């Protein structure tokens, strides 16, 4: 039943705020990686597990939220998820070691994935069917606004406070949202009453969690541990193959699987998930690599890095309702998807051409292209996922599509770390090969730096020369990282370009009014 007046306003405020809070936490950590790595005494590559663990938890929980909400009751499940997310945020802030914060980020991701999925369902129920496009627009703006605010808010908090504050800021929002949910959001008729007749696919859930966890460990630690020369990597690699194979086999056999992968028999959905995977890979990876490039190489502060994302990405927020109305008027979703992928590839390619002396304003146009690209793939891909399905299969198709997007993001971050490490080693070797003792330019540069140090600090010639060598080595490191980050953006662009021809396999059939209504309901329940 639709809400009225003040109650509707509170429901909109609560659900959109909860969703934005969850989405902020997918990107707020990105600008804090350098500070967290220094504080915890680990490398940036190691601390990126703080991002990956959150994404893995999302991958696991998103396809299960519909079942869990029905099993426990939607309001009760929503409240529990909010409490878990808020408590885990506090524990992340209090963590003193890498393993500890990775565990709590995983728990936070379990609560957060449920917040995102259930918030939209509750928001849709607060509106009459004819007004649900308004609800979709509000939620769509939140989908873009959350990841946009994350780096900016994170940068401000890092600059003025310290990294634990990026988690502590969730506490007042989470507490207020919990109170408002308990007070104003009503239970659905009969929710949580059908528990006795429901089957929990424990085996499927365990196989999915084990398979994804082992796969991510291989991807994340493979470069560091020299891939399959490491016994741990070999064991995890075999475990990932076995458990994921068993997961697929088992889910195809049972009547009520945790993830209904049978719907992938629809060609349109199968090809849509490829686009969704690549989109997730690009979105998560670009938001991971750009802040590290800006801070480690270009010398921006965390706040400057986040601020550079804010203005151009707000374009995407404004584009969401326009795209929604265009699709409602019959513009095929596949057109938006193709244009969005091209724009995102263009963003990556332009970013891969930046100079190490570039000013922050030079990123505005590329990031604006990224914003347009995001807005043109978010909702259209959800619509495209169900274009060839029967209404009864819409929830399974959308849940699977959303899981694939999160999996693409987790895979992309791990891939980026491995690729950056490999390219850094290669570029540093190439650069060092051009720096030989006795070379005129090297000698001249070393002498100039040493003389400058002697005149400024009064150091002796031996100390000044050693310091000059260290400065040159640091410059080589910076240049090697700079080149490796640019290579990573080119790689992302390549993924987008490769999948473009597959657009010919996507259906563009317009759905009837009844099918559109069923799809909208499925999006609300499964997203």
TrEMBL record:
Coiled coil: none
Record membrane topology: Multi-pass membrane protein
Major facilitator superfamily (MFS) profile domain: residues covered: 11-511
Alphabetized GO MF terms: transmembrane transporter activity
Residues that span the membrane, as ranges: 9-29, 49-69, 76-96, 102-124, 136-158, 164-185, 200-219, 231-250, 271-293, 305-324, 333-352, 358-382, 403-421, 488-506
InterPro entries: EmrB-like, MFS, MFS_dom, MFS_trans_sf, Sugar_transporter_CS
Domain of life (superkingdom): Bacteria
CC annotations in GO: plasma membrane
Keywords: Cell membrane, Membrane, Transmembrane, Transmembrane helix, Transport
Subcellular location: Cell membrane
UniProt family annotation: Belongs to the major facilitator superfamily. EmrB family.
Name of protein: Multidrug resistance protein
Organism listed in the record: Filimonas zeae
């Amino acid at each position: 039943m639709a809400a009225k007046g003040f109650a509707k306003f509170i429901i909109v405020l609560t659900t959109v705020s909860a969703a934005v809070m969850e989405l902020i936490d997918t990107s707020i950590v990105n600008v804090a990686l350098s500070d967290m790595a220094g504080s915890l005494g680990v490398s940036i590559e190691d601390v990126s597990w703080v991002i990956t663990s959150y994404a893995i938890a999302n991958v696991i929980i998103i396809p299960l939220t519909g079942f869990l909400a029905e099993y426990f009751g939607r309001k009760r499940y929503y409240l529990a998820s909010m409490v878990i997310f808020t408590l885990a945020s506090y524990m992340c802030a209090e963590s003193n070691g890498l393993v500890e914060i990775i565990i709590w980020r995983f728990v936070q991701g379990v609560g957060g994935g449920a917040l995102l999925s259930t918030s939209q369902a509750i928001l849709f129920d607060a509106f009459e069917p004819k007004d649900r496009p308004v609800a979709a627009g509000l939620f769509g703006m939140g989908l873009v606004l959350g990841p946009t605010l994350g780096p900016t808010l994170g940068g401000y908090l890092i600059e003025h406070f310290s990294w634990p504050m990026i988690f502590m800021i969730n506490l007042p929002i989470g507490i207020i949202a919990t109170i408002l949910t308990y007070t104003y959001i009503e239970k659905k008729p009969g929710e949580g009453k059908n528990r006795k007749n429901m089957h929990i696919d424990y085996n499927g859930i365990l196989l999915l969690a084990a398979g994804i966890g082992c796969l991510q460990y291989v991807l994340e630690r493979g470069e560091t541990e020299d891939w399959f020369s490491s016994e741990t990597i070999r064991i995890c690699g075999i475990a990932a193959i076995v458990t994921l194979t068993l997961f697929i086999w088992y889910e195809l056999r049972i009547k009520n699987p945790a993830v209904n992968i049978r719907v992938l028999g629809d060609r349109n959905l199968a090809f849509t998930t490829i686009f969704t995977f690549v989109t997730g890979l690009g979105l998560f990876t670009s938001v991971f690599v750009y802040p590290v490039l800006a801070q480690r190489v270009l010398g921006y502060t965390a706040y400057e890095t986040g601020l550079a994302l804010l203005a151009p990405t707000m374009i995407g927020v404004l584009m969401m309702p326009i795209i929604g109305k265009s699709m409602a008027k019959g513009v095929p979703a596949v057109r938006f998807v193709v244009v969005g992928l091209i724009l995102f590839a263009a963003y990556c390619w332009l970013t891969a051409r930046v100079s190490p002396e570039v000013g922050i304003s030079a990123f505005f146009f590329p990031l604006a292209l990224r914003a347009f690209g995001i807005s043109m793939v978010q909702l259209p891909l959800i619509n495209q996922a169900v274009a060839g399905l029967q209404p009864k299969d819409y929830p399974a198709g959308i849940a699977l599509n959303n899981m694939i997007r999160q999996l693409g993001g987790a895979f992309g971050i791990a891939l980026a770390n491995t690729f950056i490490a490999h390219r850094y080693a290669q570029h540093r070797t190439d650069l060092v090969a051009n720096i030989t003792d006795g070379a005129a330019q090297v000698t001249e540069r070393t002498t100039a730096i040493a003389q400058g140090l002697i005149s400024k600090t009064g150091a002796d010639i031996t100390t000044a020369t050693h310091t000059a060598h260290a400065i040159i080595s640091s410059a080589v490191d910076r240049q090697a990282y700079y080149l490796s980050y640019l290579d990573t953006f080119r790689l992302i662009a390549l993924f987008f370009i490769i999948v473009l021809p597959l657009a010919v396999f996507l259906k563009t059939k317009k759905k009837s009014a009844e099918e559109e209504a069923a799809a909208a309901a499925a999006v609300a329940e499964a997203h």
